[in-house]
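Dataset card, provenance and construction

Sequences and ligand SMILES were collected as paired inputs. For each pair, a complete structure of the chain with the small molecule in place was predicted and serialized as structure tokens. The example below shows a pair involving pyridoxal-5'-phosphate. Curators did not alter the output after generation; any descriptive sentences attached to a record were derived from the structure itself.
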Amino acid sequence: MLSKRAEALKPSPTLAINAKEKALKAQGLDIAGFGAGEPDFDTPEHIKQAAIKAINDNFTRYTPAAGIDPLKDAVIEKFKRDNGLTYKRDEIIISCGGKHALFNLFEAIFQEGDEVLIPVPFWVSYPPMVELTGAKPVLVETEEKEDYQVTGSLLKKYINSKTKGIILNYPSNPAGSVYYRENLEKIGRLAVENNLYIISDEIYEKLTYDDYRHISIASLDKSFKDRTIICHGVSKTYAMTGWRIGYAAGPAHVIKAMSNIQSQSTSNPTSISQMAAIAALNGPQDIIPIMVNEFKKRRDFIISELRSIEGVTCYKPKGAFYAFPNFNAILGKRYKDKTIESSATLTEILLEDFHTAVVPGAEFGKEGYIRLSFATSMDVIKKGLERIKKAVREFR
Ligand SMILES: *Cc1c(COP(=O)(O)O)cnc(C)c1O
């Protein structure tokens, strides 16, 4: 018999689609893959060399569970440099990926009886991770035509005495939406008034476009910082998804609880990867503008192509590397003997009949939408969009 918790848990749908896409490719099929949630760039050379040096120096033993001081110091420097935020070592934890930092955080602050506000569309892992703690995810709808903003008046409707925290993710996965100062200040004040934790997932901070400059909510007011835990990592910024290094910054008592959980579960993140992460944070940053320029070109192309499909609308992402078009106008149409009644059916048809892999919006809480990652080559993007347009022409 499995535990109830495990029985209720399904695997990450994005990782599942990625696996299906890879399996079909391995069968020799020419799949245009928009599933990937990771940069298609290689980890920069100086970062790889730092890891190789760590191995040669035999830096291959256990480290302190919450990470080594030189990496915490590099993270402290990063927050000073990029966000004007000052943290001490006991306010920083290094985890096995940003996802692991979030997991430890939720374990540390949420429990049965608590409610956690999650704006929709959300990153697929937030609701299941909150549920694992026994707390209840409370989904807060946001709208494409309002640039997916949560506002104070909207949040007030959902806040009650059980509300323990709010999860912000900006730039966001899946929509690439962002927050500006004015709205962050309103959300922060509401969190202070209602004694909420602010979980700020800023993993896409460095991947932003146009005039948008990321502002961490913690940097706006000391009373915000005192209740904010920033979750971050090197995966997306430095094309290091496989290295599994994330980090969090927040109040010392929360960080200590997270370290205790980590010390009783995974112990330290990989020693070698920690040395690589120091090189990433302290070393040359030139991969960032290179990636951003490339992603921006692809974004401009993919958004204008998607918007050219009749009935389809799409928010133009200000950050991250995903397009999240609204295909609701296509729902209800037919293809062969199927009615396209959901984003899941649409996704299935696109993959099986048009060899194009996208993620159904329902997984992010938005039925009728699909997510396309543009962390893939321009060739694949062009080919995939041709196929999607062809599919839509064949829907009746
Ligand atoms: C990718 C991602 C993460 C974490 O990635 P890690 O590889 O675990 O660091 C966290 N939040 C969001 C929204 C993401 O897209």
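Derived descriptions for this record:
The two ends are 47 Å apart (CA to CA).
The chain is about 40% helix and 15% strand.
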